[in-house]
Amino acid sequence: MTRQTSILLSFLYLACTLAMIQAETYNGTGPIVVGQPWSITCQGGPDDNFQSSLGWTRNGQTIPELSKAQISIKYDQNNTSTLSSSSATEAHDGKYSCLMSNSKSFYDLTIIRDFVSKIKLKKTPLIIKCENITDNSDIIWKMEDKVINEQKMFKIDAKNLTLTVDPADDDTSIFNKSITCSPKNSTTPASKFKIFPKPIPTMNPHSVAVEGEKLTLYCHNKNNFYPSIKIKWQFKNQDINDTSRITYKSDDNQIEKSMLIIEKPTLDDAGEWSCRAAYDKNDLNNDDIEVATTTLRVKDKLAALWPFLGICAEVFILCTIILIYEKKRNKSDLEESDTDQSPDTKPASNKDSDVRHRK
Is 27 helix (H, G, I), strand (E, B) or coil? Predict the structure, then answer.
């Protein structure tokens, strides 16, 4: 082995070692149920700039709960930072990174729901069955900790352990409310549900982008999305992989992934983009959910220049034709003028008149 090879290998080993030392590492709790506390610890390398470059993000975006004190940050010695919350919500689900740099390492926090989603269709009663009941004892149904009694909106079937929900189509009082069932002698709910209207995503049917200029696509809901909604984007019916060129952002209602941002669109991005919406991640691939689609057309960034160049070319050609015509016409007029002044065409002098005058 030559000396040059040994030196090269030494430098490679040193570079790999430094990269491993400076890379941040994460420790955190496992899957968290909604309402439980959670924390993520980020351990940085021996870098004096770790604290100055510290900046927690979720899915590449700033964390809005930080400004509301729902999530807190604690910085310890030895380049360690801890992100925590006393009560998990579904919005906390995502990929967390502790550095503002383009680090590819992150911690994937999974939030598990403590309820089952139920979709209420218009003009169709919704039947909910109480699960996890070992016997046929009487059960109590509650909505937001208030006992549900037989009324026009609710019908209870004690034998089949079911609750039928049939409100008016314009009644939204039942949506996103906690509905529980439990035996009379128990304070712990056997099952927990939440009712939502069927999500109907909408998009502008046609979108236009300029090559190289940032584009944002919006996925709205005709029935208003609730915070529990899950959104999935597709391009030409294919799932979109996370890249540095394509990012997601929450809208003003904190609906995650409701905005898709393409940093630098290319001509290859032209086609059909679609968003799928469901209140359960497992339902996003179902064929019976609503899908909104927009047809994207990407313009060449020089497209506006071609008409201008065409006009300039027309003006140039027209001016050239005019100049050539004027030049030929002036030459023709000059030749005619020379012909009129020729000696052969001069009038003869009257000699007889001159002779008479002298006499």
Answer: strand
